[in-house]
Specification:
- The protein has 3 helices and 4 strands; from the N terminus they run E-H-E-H-E-E-H.
- By secondary structure, the protein is of the alpha+beta class.
- A 4-stranded mixed beta sheet has the order 2-1-3-4, with helices on both faces.
């Protein structure tokens, strides 16, 4: 299975159900999907790379090996991961 990059805030110690970054990271862990964490600033104004990739500054963002990205509401992202469709339509998926 391909490895993804998870762009999330640097506050990794916060593992609360309401935290969108943790919600997605936990789903990746539960589904045993290999991922690399790219720590982004907690401040939206300092997320220029996220904006370059997605056109907005919200986290979390999943970046695939081919350079494409996936971003929507974290609950929907986690549901897609758990449904096993994260890589749907992608080579190796």
């Amino acid at each position: 299975m391909p490895k993804v990059k998870l762009r999330r805030c640097k506050v990794r110690w916060l593992k609360a159900d309401g935290d969108p970054c943790w919600r997605v990271e936990r789903a990746l862990e539960e589904m045993v999907i290999q991922y690399e964490v790219i720590g982004e600033s907690y401040l939206e104004g300092r997320r220029s790379e996220v904006e370059r990739l997605t056109g907005q500054r919200h986290l979390p963002v999943i970046e695939f090996e081919d350079g494409t990205v996936y971003r929507e509401d974290s609950s929907k992202m986690a549901a897609r991961i758990r449904a096993g469709t994260l890589f749907e339509g992608r080579e190796g998926g």
